[in-house]
Amino acid sequence: MIMEKLTYESTRGGESGLTASQAVLKGLAEDGGLYMPNRIPGLDISLEQLAKMSYQEAAYEVMKLFLTDYTEEELKSCIASAYDSKFDQPEIVGMRKASGAHYLELFHGSTIAFKDMALSILPYLMTTAAKKNHVENEIVILTATSGDTGKAAMAGFADVPGTRIIVFYPKGGVSRVQELQMVTQKGDNTAVVAIHGNFDDAQTGVKQIFGDQEFGKRLAARKFQLSSANSINIGRLVPQVVYYVYAYAQLVHKGEIKPGEEINVTVPTGNFGNILAAYFAKQMGLPIKTLICASNDNKVLFDFFQTGVYDKRREFVLTTSPSMDILISSNLERLIYLSADSDPQANKRLMEELKAEGRYQVTEKMRQKMSDFWGGYATEQENAAEIKRLFDATGYMIDTHTGVASAVYQKYVAETKDKTPTVIVSTASPYKFSHSVMEAVFGSQGDKEEFQIIDDLCRATGVVVPPAVEEIRNARIRHKRECDVDAMEKSVAEILGLPEI
Known about the structure:
Layout: E1 8-10, H1 20-26, E2 35-37, H2 47-50, H3 55-66, H4 72-82, E3 94-98, E4 101-105, H5 115-119, H6 122-132, E5 138-144, H7 149-157, E6 163-170, H8 176-183, E7 190-196, H9 199-211, H10 213-221, E8 224-227, H11 234-253, E9 263-268, H12 273-283, E10 288-295, H13 300-307, E11 309-311, H14 332-339, H15 344-357, E12 359-361, H16 364-369, E13 373-377, H17 380-394, H18 400-416, E14 422-426, H19 434-442, H20 450-461, H21 467-470, E15 481-484, H22 488-496
Parallel strand pairs: 4-14, 5-6, 5-8, 6-7, 7-15, 9-10, 9-14, 10-13
Antiparallel strand pairs: 1-2, 3-4, 11-12
Helix pairs in contact: 1-6, 3-4, 3-11, 4-6, 11-12, 17-18, 17-19
């Protein structure tokens, strides 16, 4: 039987009928919507077969179902190029059982954060898409980051022919290691800009640049075209589905569960892309029971799942889990679209309400469609206490984002008494947030400098300092540009050498 090729459409109705490669290339739809497949395909291979596969083989089985205009040769080449020695273990991801849960370690890539899982392959998917669509313009990757996406995207696109990458991050809103990873990034085609604002400001600014048609014409006149490496790009989301499928297959392989047995998944969530990928995996047939959505003190998603009201009009809190310090969860739009039976007009109305009023409310029927999700949140104190509890009990050190997920999982079990086998997504190495994790376990670190704390962390855990951290210890600062939020477009123009108007 020949599979019908998927096409992609905007969640706001302005575009439809795009191929996967066209959606990957464009990143964001022209009407401001996000690209979605016209259907979520089902897995066409058994869980028993998947249990015998390598990460690369499982990646092909999942991604071929979404990226239907990539040939088998093209897709396997992209996968082989992405998931190689850049990762510090051949399995690509780690699975660690601790305190009754399975921690899925997604930080074994070159920048020690889960963003490597998708951003290692996106440059290959994008350059392949450019060839397939006879693109002659230089592709400018425009990205906002709350800490991890920026470094992982730059590492992926550094010196890739035919591309440039510009990253905006909130000054003072990322960890010191995250900032050093970005501002020391090599590559003649890379640029980093610290904005005087928070992540939501950066993300909104990037979306506005995408939506500025006059600026688009200026870019086109100089043979540039924009794309995105944020999780709004479907080329980011699809690779993230893979590790949920692989995690389940590994639990079967290790005899922890039987094929077909349900699991829960707990995901620390800010922009909603990571947990949305788990939802896609469930829709494809993976036996996931509950998707536990873990928030920090910026608990806009927790409140949404409790009430059906999404309200961004609240204080923005800087926490020790900065990649989750987000009040506008862009990828939630894809779930809203699906829960509205893929009605782009219904989704568009809600997104317009969010822009105009800062809030929207979904219908009871839509809430029922989201009943797979359970929302929880952890305060700063609860996060720190959970990191300490797990370390004291097992010797296993987790980062501050995984701490949120682990703390919320403990609350979920206490409230529901559900003992279903659970995967907790561990999104970053503790070395990325060494100051916060050492403070959580051992108390105040006083005025110790960052790399002294990192060495202390190494001694405490016995885990070798990752190359991603060692390489920034004495690296030269290469990127010093800063700007106000309203000058982001001007910064892009200056970086690309566009003539002033």
